[in-house]
Amino acid sequence: MDTPLRLEVIVASVRPERFAPVVADWFLRVMRNYPEFDTGVIDLAHTPLPVELVETEQTAAYRARLRAADAFVVITSEYNHGYPASVKTAFDTAKHEWRAKPVAFVSYGGLSGGLRAVEQLRQVVAEVHMVSVRETVSFHQAKKRFDKEGDTSDGAAIDAAHRMVRQLAWWARTLRTARAADPYPG
């Protein structure tokens, strides 16, 4: 399969005056170095998903995007030692569309850098039959890690991003091939 891997980057925070766009824009610039990916963005602040999990035109379009994807990256903050409710709704809105696909995480926050949210999300993605990539990018005290142009000199995060994307590419290729040869039994 020579076609690019379809990656959907899910931006989890929906709060007004959120920091998420800074982190997401940085990560999207990182992705420009990886032509094997065709990258799209699902910003949950602009993707109306009803918390009642009812079928709407928007949820059908959302699930179609998930179905077409080979891999996902979730960019998440941490609120009160957990992940935003918006990302849980995003996972609960779909079911089969997630299965046998890899997911990676970019997190940000205060002292923990969003890592507690990521650890909790790993449990969620396991339940929907996804493969969680081991490497994670996290920004501790995130607002101090980016300059006015939205760039970072955080060497650990930059290195982790490249390792994470390489792992994600491997899983995405491997699982796309496997799903084509033998549909996932779930």
Description:
The chain is of the alpha/beta class. The chain has one domain (5-181): Flavodoxin domain (Rossmann fold). The protein is built from 5 helices and 5 strands. It has a 5-stranded parallel beta sheet with strand order 2-1-3-4-5, sandwiched between helices. The longest helix is centred in the C-terminal third of the chain and has 27 residues, at 155-181. The two termini are 23 Å apart.
Q: Which key features would you list for this structure?
A:
alpha/beta, Rossmann fold, five-stranded parallel β-sheet
Annotated CATH topology:
Rossmann fold
Runs with pLDDT <50, length 5+? none
Q: What's the N-to-C terminus distance?
A: 23 Å
Query: What top-tier CATH class fits best?
Result: Alpha Beta
Number of strands: 5
Q: Biggest β-sheet, characterized?
A: 5 strands, parallel
Q: What is the averaged pLDDT score?
A: 97
- What would you say the CATH architecture is? 3-Layer(aba) Sandwich
